[in-house]
Design brief:
- The complex is a heterodimer.
- Chain A is mainly beta.
- Helix content of chain A is 0%, strand content 44%.
- Chain A has no helices and nine strands.
- In chain A, the strands form two sheets. In chain A, strands 1, 3, 4, 7, 8 and 9 form a six-stranded mixed beta sheet that branches.
- The N and C termini of chain A lie far apart (29 Å).
- Chain B is mostly beta strands.
- In chain B, 0% of the residues lie in helices and 56% in strands.
- Chain B contains no helices and eleven strands.
- In chain B, the strands form two sheets. In chain B, strands 2, 4, 5, 6, 9, 10 and 11 form a seven-stranded mixed beta sheet that branches.
- Classes of the chains: A mainly beta, B mainly beta.
Chain lengths: 110, 124
């Protein structure tokens, strides 16, 4: 069982927006602004999409955005495109120099 | 551009030692602005951060609680690489193992560069 809780699946049609949640506790997500999001296509390594809750690394489209409220972080993908179909994972700093991950969400573009 | 290249055996028997190496190009294992991490992924347990090594005037290590008694992550400055050693493996340790970098520019708790991954299977 993963430390952070994500819905197993999410879906949307091309052009729509979809939001994926990542729920932790006050000891991880709620306690620090160190939530990251990753995109993983089959057979590939994860790719960093969001760090420090809301920031995008260079090269990540601005269709991807992050937010946080209390113990829940969210990733929103706007203007869905076929290539956005992938697994998405969150992680968070959890104090004492450790990191925890979510169980992952499979995003399907209908 | 940072590139990480993993190497190591993919099949182990229970109780053996898992050893993987991650060679770094485009950065230095001794960098003061990066950390060097091991992460694994399995269908049953998802992504799990295992541990890291980093240099800040001296070498430091941090390890996940659930493997702390079995894990060692070491830097090798002469070869600009770092390694993972996991002792007394069981079938539960079967997973794809990744090495990954975190950098101060994208938060030291987000992993911005990953290697290709190594499937390690533990089976008698």
């Amino acid at each position: 069982q993963s430390a952070l809780t994500q819905p197993p699946s999410a879906s949307g049609s091309p052009g729509q927006s979809v939001t994926i949640s990542c729920t932790g506790t006050s000891s991880d997500v709620g306690g620090y602004n160190y939530v990251s999001w990753y995109q993983q296509h089959p057979g590939k390594a994860p790719k960093l999409m969001i760090y420090e809750v809301t920031k995008r690394p260079s090269g990540v489209p601005d269709r991807f955005s992050g937010s946080k409220s209390g113990n829940t972080a969210s990733l929103t993908v706007s203007g869905l495109q076929a290539e956005d179909e992938a697994d998405y994972y969150c992680n968070s700093f959890a104090g004492n120099n450790i990191v925890v991950f979510g169980g992952g969400t499979k995003l399907t573009v209908l | 551009q940072v590139h990480l290249q993993q190497s190591g055996p993919g099949l182990l028997k229970p109780s053996q030692i898992l050893s993987l190496t991650c060679a770094i190009s485009g950065d230095s294992v001794s960098s003061n602005t990066a950390t060097w991490n091991w992460i694994r992924q399995s269908p049953s347990r998802g992504l799990e951060w295992l541990g890291r090594t980093y240099y800040r005037s001296k070498w430091y290590n941090d390890y996940a609680l659930f493997v702390r008694s079995r894990i060692t992550v070491n830097p090798d400055t002469s070869k600009n690489q770092f390694s993972l050693q996991l002792n007394s493996v069981t079938p539960e340790d079967t997973a794809v193992y990744y090495c990954a970098r975190s950098h101060i520019s994208t938060s030291l708790w987000g992993f911005d560069d990953w290697a290709q991954g190594t499937l390690v299977t533990v089976s008698s």
